Amino acid sequence: MKRVYVNEEWCLGCHLCEYNCAFANSGMTDMATALKGKRIFPRIHIEESDRITFAVSCRHCADPLCVKACISGALTKDEADGVIRIDRSRCVGCFTCVLVCPYGALAPGEDGVMQKCELCLKNTCGEPACVKGCPNRAIVYEER
Fold first, then answer.
1. How buried is residue 44: exposed, middle or buried, by Cβ count under 10 Å (0-12/13-18/19+)?
2. Number of structural domains, the chain?
3. pTM value?
4. N or C: where does the chain have the smaller number of CB atoms within 10 Å of the terminal CB?
């Protein structure tokens, strides 16, 4: 399965992946209208530690703890493509998935309901928006 991988040696910490992600998931066609003057809620985020910066997103684990811990059944793993998806209409906002995810890949969205990377499979064609928007090619979408 193809996944998003980050080469932290190339990450500039520019946060463009976050903006591209937020825009891709906004449902709007104009980035300025979608994001200007607003707090963004990306499904990928940049972590900074000492001199290292890197992007954090869902790893679509083979044995996902978040799916097992979800009390409402909102998180499911699609066996066909291996992608872990969230049914936001079923999420009760209990934060259990946030607590069990070893990567810190889940976070509440603007409405308080959990959200996570779903590889932009519904938003774009080809590759995820964070990959397309990374100026230094630190984020890649590939099978390993």
1. buried
2. 2
3. 0.89
4. C
- Domain range for residue 130? 1-57+125-144
The neighbouring-strand residues paired with 84 are: 77
Look at residue 123 in the predicted model and tell me its pLDDT.
79
| Pair (3, 29) in one structural domain | yes
| CATH number of the domain residue 22 falls in | 3.30.70.20
Per residue in 5-43, pLDDT tens? 999 899 999 999 999 999 999 989 999 999 999 999 999
**Helix and strand totals (H; E) in the chain:** 5, 8
Q: What are the φ and ψ backbone dihedral angles of 132, each rounded to 5 degrees?
A: -60, -35
- Same domain as 144, residue 131: yes
DSSP percent split of the chain into helix, strand, coil, nearest 5: 20, 20, 60
